[in-house]
Amino acid sequence: MDPVIPFIILAVLFVAIALSSIRIVPQARAYNIERFGRYTRTLVPGLNFIIPGVDRVNTKFDLREHVFTSRPQPVITEDNLVVNIDTVLYYQVTDPKAAAYEVANYIQAIDQLTVTTLRNVIGSMDLERTLTSREEINTRLRGVLDDTTGKWGIRVNRVEIKAIDPPPTIKEAMEKQMRADRDKRAAILHAEGERQARILRAEGARQQVILEAQGDQQAAILRADGEAQAVERVFQAVHANNADAKLLAYKYLETLPHLANGEGNTFWVIPGELTEAVKNVSHAFAGDTARSGPSTEKGEDAAPAGPAQLTGPDPTERSASAQAAVEAAEAARQAVADARDDVRRAGVAGVRDPEATPRPRKED
């Protein structure tokens, strides 16, 4: 027998024993070591050494956060309705020793604890509150699970309600209720819109009427001011120029034909003062020649001398003044005759001729 063989066998045994004593733990992992069946320590990530044949790795844990999805569980609400609730748990192993020796199967324990806690929480709520209080349910579930699983070396980071499924008949009734609520809100919004539109239209009409009234008021005020200023200026001009009755009679005759120019004038009465106005104009242009002799008619007053009276020995000026007076009188009579003809052509009766009915004369 070759003496080298025992040395080779010893070397192989030494290498095997050395390799079996080395344990390399990955990151975020934890290994529980038992010596002769009793827990001694937990290996941390990295290079670790154990005694071969004495120490052994009992359990291996992943220290990262895990997601556990439970199957839908039937839960009865406070108003005796059965709903199926599906939950999602986010947990993490914080103590490998407690997770290995405090509970036999922490996954099953967490699942059953979630179901029982969920039934207790949902049992105190009605269906409507259950559907609208997910955040409250999650908070209460997390509080209960975190307190209970803490001694197991498990930390529940988050609990989420993934789905709440009421019975089909309840779903149909809820859909009808939601549809009715939406129709109600739509009708309310439509009515509010119509109300606002009517209010705005009324406000606009009111503002329009107010603005139109203010405009009419300002226009009337301006027209009245203009007419007042015109009357004032005419009044000042008449008084400043010391107009006598003869000038006023002439303007009276000049304005008289315009009274029949309106489209709605179907009846026009010639005033009785027309003859007196014609006489005043004739006397104004006749001067001393027309009024020098005594009146032949009884009751006729002598015309006083005025600014229009012609004085002086020049017979040429007297003849010219008499001719002008005659022409003015003829023009006035012609104007009156034309006015009467216009009224007669219009077929309107009731025109009173001032010459046909002479005015009573004053007694001397």
UniProtKB/TrEMBL annotation:
It is a single-pass membrane protein. Residues 318-337 have a biased composition (Low complexity). PROSITE patterns: BAND_7. Residues 20-178 form the Band domain. Keywords: Membrane, Transmembrane, Transmembrane helix. The keyword Nuclease does not apply. Its main location: membrane. Residues 287-364 are annotated as: Disordered. It is found in: Membrane. Residues 352-364 have a biased composition (Basic and acidic residues). Belongs to the band 7/mec-2 family. This is SPFH domain-containing protein.
